[in-house]
């Protein structure tokens, strides 16, 4: 899921910044009045474009994920034994999760064992599996990981995260424009009228404030993502078994030790494989809880049932 969230955030930030640049180039600022800012108009403006940016990112999520990972779609009619096993597992678990159809299945090359799910709707979803996951985990462990990703789809996590991101986008655009307007004024005259206003500096500060606020907003998205991971773990345990889910998490933690020398982008992939020791900053941006906490929660739920 780390790859799914990171791809979504990167595309979302790119889309929002592109929208802001285009609006600036064409001077589409209906909220700027001669007396200052029309706040209701600004809020409506930011909600439309902020939510629009998030949903554009969502609609592009499958295409972007396949393009950036080089994932190859597995045909339902494949004759490759390994691919047949993966596809049949996704198909079976999707049916057990009551999905309307089998998600698109893809495999991407990475020595690190990873998987992610994305897509705008349950009918247009994607489950991607790394070659490392297929080779380093047992059949039951792979089933649990796939179950975890299927649970994300069944829970509607991408749509929920998109709504959250859309709201954050709107507030980012809203606050960035207010602060940019304030700092772009050179002051007030003795009669209290607004002083000179630099449109060039206004656009520059909008761009800078949006980047800063987007980074802060990413912490909120990451926090919510960590909560959803526990629910997806529970879903994976239900679709496979609690022991399979725990074994899979343990296997992923062990595998992380063998990818320490790889690039960070490879070692910190979809299922969030990394050291349990994190700095405060990394904790704030982490899309997944520590594996030890995930296992502990699964153990508690098993004994409470």
Characterization of the model:
The chain contains twelve helices and six strands. It has 305 residues and is an alpha+beta fold. It has one domain. The strands form two sheets. It has a four-stranded mixed beta sheet with strand order 3-4-6-5, sandwiched between helices.
Secondary structure elements and pairings:
Layout (H helix, E strand, L loop, with lengths): L1 H24 L6 E2 L2 E2 L1 H21 L1 H9 L2 E2 L7 H16 L7 E5 L6 E4 L7 E5 H6 L2 H16 L2 H28 L14 H41 L2 H17 L5 H4 L12 H6 L5 H14 L1
Parallel strand pairs: 4-6
Antiparallel strand pairs: 1-2, 3-4, 5-6
Amount of helix: 55-70%
What's the main sheet like? 4 strands, mixed
Q: pLDDT average, as an integer?
A: 82
Number of helical elements = 12
The N- to C-terminal Cα distance equals: 27 Å
The gyration radius over C-alpha positions equals 22 Å
Assign an overall shape. Answer: elongated
Structural class: alpha+beta
The beta-strand count equals 6
Count of domain modules:
1
Largest sheet strand order:
3-4-6-5
Q: What is the string of helix and strand elements? A: HEEHHEHEEEHHHHHHHH
Strand fraction: 5-15%
The low-confidence parts are 188-195, 263-276
């Amino acid at each position: 899921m780390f790859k799914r969230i990171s791809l979504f955030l990167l595309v979302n930030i790119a889309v929002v910044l592109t929208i802001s640049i285009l609006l600036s180039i064409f001077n589409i600022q209906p909220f700027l009045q001669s007396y200052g800012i029309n706040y209701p108009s600004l809020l409506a403006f930011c909600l439309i474009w902020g939510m629009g940016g998030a949903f554009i990112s969502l609609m592009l999520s499958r295409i972007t994920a396949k393009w950036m990972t080089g994932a190859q779609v597995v045909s339902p009619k494949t004759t490759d034994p390994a691919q047949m096993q993966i596809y049949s597992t996704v198909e079976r678990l999707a049916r057990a999760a009551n999905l309307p159809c089998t998600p698109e299945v893809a495999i991407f090359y990475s020595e690190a064992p990873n998987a992610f799910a994305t897509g705008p709707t349950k009918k247009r979803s994607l489950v991607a599996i790394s070659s490392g996951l297929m080779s380093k985990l047992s059949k039951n462990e792979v089933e649990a990981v796939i179950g975890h990703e299927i649970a994300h789809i069944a829970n509607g996590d991408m749509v929920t995260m998109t709504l959250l991101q859309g709201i954050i986008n709107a507030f980012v655009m809203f606050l960035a424009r207010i602060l940019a307007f304030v700092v772009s004024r050179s002051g007030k005259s003795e009669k209290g009228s607004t002083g000179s206003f630099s449109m060039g500096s206004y656009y520059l500060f909008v761009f800078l404030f949006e980047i800063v606020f987007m980074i802060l907003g990413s912490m909120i998205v990451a926090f919510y993502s960590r909560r959803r991971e526990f629910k997806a773990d529970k879903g994976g345990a239900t679709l496979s078994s609690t022991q399979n889910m725990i074994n899979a998490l343990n296997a992923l933690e062990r595998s992380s030790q063998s990818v320490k020398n790889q690039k960070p982008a490879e070692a910190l992939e979809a299922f969030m494989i990394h050291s349990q020791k994190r700095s405060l900053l990394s904790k704030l941006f982490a899309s997944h809880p520590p594996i030890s906490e995930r296992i502990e929660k699964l153990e508690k739920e098993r004994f409470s049932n």
